[in-house]
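thought: fold this chain, then report.
action: predict
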Amino acid sequence: MQNTTLQGKTALITGSTSGIGLGIARALAQQGAHIVLNGFGDANEIAALQAGLTQDYGVQSTYHPADMSRPQEIAAMMQFAAAKFGSVDILVNNAGIQHVADIEDFPVEKWDAIIAINLSSAFHTTRLALPAMKEKNWGRIINIASAHGLVGSAQKSAYVAAKHGIVGLSKVTALENAQTGVTCNAICPGWVLTPLVQKQVDVRAANEDVSNDDAKKGLLAEKQPSGEFVTPEQLGALAVFLCSEAANQVRGAAWSMDGGWTAQ
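observation:
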């Protein structure tokens, strides 16, 4: 079933071959937006995702494999999207990686990679998307931050630094474009059961010799008062709202969807 709220718009979502990014891609496609997917994965599986978006929602879908740590590849992806669809109207910066270690033990190359993919990539896509958005006087930039964009956690120095940076970048982007039809906001999810989080659950289950279900409950109990994971579908619905006319004056917000994590 398809609505037409975003008919004729093009949405590019980084890191959208699974998890949060794919949930947002599907939600925007349901509203009629053409989709540019990006991320790693098996070529056949990615082709199936594209076909599914077209079949389920009647929109055009394409894919670009840009490595989000490489500015030249990001530029190539933005050019590819513009050549295919005219311009990027909705930009969702979602690509992210994680590494856990104390600061003094944190591998320098992991720090550099996390800052590049989780933060710098959003700067590059934004700077390249803005001119066409401003020309049309309409655009939506949605940066997927995290509860860790608002609060810290031990052993996640690079991730927390990058996500705090994403919140700051969102504010500046919003302010610079405050008198235009281009808005920029950050979404700050709590725990979502993405492949990234499932890895943390698996490690916890092995370390504590407990079942996967018990490991999930333990993880949630530490941070998320609701005791439930946020879903990609819920985040997709929030992204759709931020693209709507109702959100015209939502600018520079860091919108928590975290089961109460940052309310504590």
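thought: worth noting. Residues 115 and 162 are 6 Å apart (CA to CA).
final: tokens above.
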